[in-house]
UniProtKB/TrEMBL annotation:
The lineage of its organism: Bacteria, Pseudomonadati, Pseudomonadota, Alphaproteobacteria, Hyphomicrobiales. It comes from the Bacteria. This is Maleate isomerase. Keywords: Isomerase. It comes from Phyllobacterium bourgognense. GO terms for molecular function: isomerase activity.
């Protein structure tokens, strides 16, 4: 066998960029999550925006008590994303837990690890998205049980929305929620949409609604906001990406008035 050549260390001077990519997006997602990363890779990632993910422990069933148990893991999860380096925005990808724990509490926990970084939660992004669409009376569709759906109804009512109708599937395992077929989501959205509502919100980051938001809008004739669609939209706008994407639904043509 031929001997290896002598390894030489070059003395050539190297140039270094400040960052490999100009924008950094952190994702804190559930250990069981099947959907957020594919959705964000499709809608957010680019040669300018990088995605960096940490998974935190989560055990089904999806109940308010189990959702609250994630709160202590938020700081540690955020700290594992590019330690010692800045992020432009960080998303906690669980809608029902954000409602149960509270947007402000989640922001505080994540900012312990990443001080000053904008923190996006799905329900707050949905509120901003519905406001951008000038929706005041809404229908809501969730995959959850009635017990887990009830705090969400209160959340949107407290944000000033008139909830015209609220429909849930009664599921308590987020892995099963991720397997709901897109055609089933379209049919369920048609059934859930109140005729006098301005828009439909489809909750849960596990549900693959973002990929069929445009098709649902065609079917119901009203704007659709889903959890991952809203967080992707807010993330893009925070990263100064203002490009409209009507093929992803009405929300992706809207600007956002700060975060």
């Amino acid at each position: 066998m031929d001997a290896f050549p002598t390894i030489r260390q070059t003395a050539m001077a190297l140039d270094f960029d400040d960052r490999p990519l100009s924008k950094r997006v952190g994702l804190v997602i559930l250990a069981t999550d099947h959907t957020t990363e594919p959705d964000f890779q499709r809608m957010v990632a680019s040669d300018r925006i990088g995605l960096y993910t940490a998974r935190i422990p989560y055990a089904n069933p999806t109940t308010p008590d189990n959702l609250r148990r994630m709160q202590p893991s938020l700081t540690e999860g955020a700290s594992l994303i590019l330690p010692g380096e800045d992020l432009d925005v960080i998303c906690y990808s669980c809608t029902s837990a954000s409602v149960v724990i509270g947007d402000e509490e989640i922001e505080a926990a994540i900012n312990l690890a990443k001080p000053g970084v904008p923190v996006v939660t799905p329900p707050l992004a949905a509120v901003r998205g519905l406001q951008a669409l000038d929706a005041k009376r809404i229908s809501i569709l969730t995959p959850y049980t009635i017990e887990t759906s009830t705090p969400m109804a209160s959340y949107f009512a407290a944000k000033g929305f008139d909830v015209a109708s609220f429909t849930c599937f009664g599921l308590d395992d987020d892995r099963e929620m991720a397997r709901i077929s897109p055609p089933s989501l379209i049919s369920a959205a048609q059934e859930a949409m109140a005729s006098d509502a301005d828009a439909l919100f489809i909750s849960c980051t596990a549900v693959r609604a973002a990929g069929v938001a445009f098709a649902i809008e065609q079917a119901i004739g009203k704007p659709v906001v889903s959890s991952n669609l809203a967080t992707a939209w807010a993330t893009l706008r925070i990263c100064d990406d203002l490009m409209p994407h009507p093929e992803w639904g009405s929300l992706m043509t809207q600007s956002m008035a700060g975060w």
